C-alpha cells in the first residue's frame, strides 16, 4: 500500500485539504498518515518577568490538538480510506520529512492557497521548504476561497 503523508494545521482550509487527500488516496489505493506538528514554544510567554514557561498551557493545547487530529482521522476512516495519525512537536519541515522516511511514504500532500508575495513568504514557506528538501514527490493541492 502507498503511504501518503498529510500534514494538517487545523486552519480554515483543512477540510478542503483533507477532501483532496482522500480523493487522491482512493485513486492510488493509499493510506493516509496524518500528522500535526505543534511548535515547541506553546507554553512560553513573555511578560514583565521575562520569559516564563507554563506547562499547563502546553498540556491543554496539545490535548485540544489531539482531539482535533482524532476527529480528522475518524472522518478519513469513515470514507473507507486507511488512516493513522500522530502529533509531534518541533520544526515542522524536519518532523514531516522524518515521518515520511519512517513511513517509507510515496507522497506528501500539502495545500496551496494560490497567493503570492509577502503572504507566500510566511504561510507558503512550509510547502516551499518541503518541495525543495523532500526526496519524494510533494503533491500541492490548490485550496481556494
Task: Kindly describe this structure.
The protein has 145 residues and is of the alpha/beta class. The chain has five helices and seven strands. The chain has helices at 14-28, 55-77, 92-102, 118-122, 125-133; strands spanning 2-7, 30-38, 44-47, 50-53, 83-89, 107-112, 138-142. Strands 5-2-1-6-7 form a five-stranded parallel beta sheet, sandwiched between helices. The chain has a two-stranded antiparallel ribbon with strand order 3-4. The N and C termini lie far apart (33 Å).
In summary, what is this structure?
This is Universal stress protein. The protein is of the alpha/beta class and 145 residues long. It has helices spanning 14-28, 55-77, 92-102, 118-122, 125-133; strands at 2-7, 30-38, 44-47, 50-53, 83-89, 107-112, 138-142.
Q: Label the structural class.
A: alpha/beta
Oligomer state of the chains in this structure? single chain
Write out the strand line-up for the largest beta sheet, numbering strands in chain order. 5-2-1-6-7
Q: What is the helix/strand order? A: EHEEEHEHEHHE
Question: Total strand count, please?
Answer: 7
Can you tag this structure with a few keywords?
single chain, 145 residues, alpha/beta, five-stranded parallel beta sheet, two-stranded antiparallel sheet, globular, Universal stress protein, Rossmann-like_a/b/a_fold
Secondary structure layout plus pairing:
Elements: E1 2-7, H1 14-28, E2 30-38, E3 44-47, E4 50-53, H2 55-77, E5 83-89, H3 92-102, E6 107-112, H4 118-122, H5 125-133, E7 138-142
Parallel strand pairs: 1-2, 1-6, 2-5, 6-7
Antiparallel strand pairs: 3-4
Amino acid at each position: 500500500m502507498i503511504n501518503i503523508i498529510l500534514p494538517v494545521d487545523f486552519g480554515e482550509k483543512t477540510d478542503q485539504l483533507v477532501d483532496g487527500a482522500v480523493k487522491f488516496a482512493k485513486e492510488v489505493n493509499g493510506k493516509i498518515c496524518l500528522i500535526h506538528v505543534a511548535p515547541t514554544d506553546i507554553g512560553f510567554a513573555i511578560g514583565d518577568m521575562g520569559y516564563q514557561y507554563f506547562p499547563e498551557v502546553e498540556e491543554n493545547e496539545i490535548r485540544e490538538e489531539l482531539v482535533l487530529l482524532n476527529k480528522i482521522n475518524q472522518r478519513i476512516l469513515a470514507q473507507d480510506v486507511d488512516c493513522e495519525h500522530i502529533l509531534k512537536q518541533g520544526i515542522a519541515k524536519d518532523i514531516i520529512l522524518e515521518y515520511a522516511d519512517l513511513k517509507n511514504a510515496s507522497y506528501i500532500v500539502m495545500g496551496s492557497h494560490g497567493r503570492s508575495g509577502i503572504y507566500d513568504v510566511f504561510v507558503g514557506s512550509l510547502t516551499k521548504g518541503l518541495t525543495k528538501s523532500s526526496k519524494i514527490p510533494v503533491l500541492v493541492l490548490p485550496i481556494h476561497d
